[in-house]
Specification:
Peptide Deformylase; five-stranded antiparallel beta sheet; alpha+beta; binds zinc ion
Length: 182
């Protein structure tokens, strides 16, 4: 039976802490929670379930958003209509990135931020992320464009950073000539 996750709001202090590295093997609780995150994010991107369970659509979540300050992120990326790729990264690290920066034209959203925040969030256009899967095997992904953006957003959560921290307060919007907007 699907049970909606209780996602913490930005005001919760868990969202501002630096999370700790995970020690393997994962506990059953950690594995169960990862599965629930995958289910929640998948359902939130399928209209029928989004309505049925009253979910806010989202493609990523990090453990601190569930009140656990451990370095685990989950991204459910829609590659095609209702076809998803799941990325579960334990102790993720950005090992290289492009100098080119991009920003989501419409701004970013976060399942922990329940208000409209306008502004462009500068991110690297491409990142290589290393980490471990649930069984402790080393994994690596090269992400670009919106997937790269998602990885940077989720890894920020592990360091207590929220997307709006990266919006320039004096100049929240970039022109097309200053930044590639996607
Ligand atoms: Zn977020």
């Amino acid at each position: 039976m699907f049970k909606k996750l209780n996602i913490l709001d930005e005001k919760d202090p868990h969202l501002r802490k630096i999370s700790e590295n995970v020690i393997f093997p994962l506990t059953k609780e950690e594995k169960d929670l990862i599965q629930r995150m995958v289910d929640h994010l998948t359902f939130s991107q399928i209209e029928e379930y989004e309505k049925k369970y009253d979910l806010r659509p989202g493609m990523g979540l990090a453990f601190p958003q569930l009140g656990i300050n451990k370095r685990i992120i989950v991204i459910v990326y829609e590659v095609d209509e209702e076809t998803f790729e799941n990325y579960v990264f334990i102790n993720p690290k950005i090992v290289s990135y492009s100098n080119e920066m991009i920003a989501a034209e419409a701004g970013e959203g976060c399942l922990s931020v329940n208000r409209e925040i306008e502004g462009h969030v500068p991110r690297h256009a491409r990142v290589t992320v290393e980490g471990f899967d649930e069984n402790g095997n080393k994994i690596k992904v090269r992400a670009r464009e919106d997937l790269a953006l998602a990885f940077q957003h989720e890894i920020d959560h592990l360091d207590g950073i929220l997307f709006f921290d990266r919006i320039d307060k004096k100049k929240p919007f970039y022109k097309e000539t200053e930044m590639r907007l996607i």
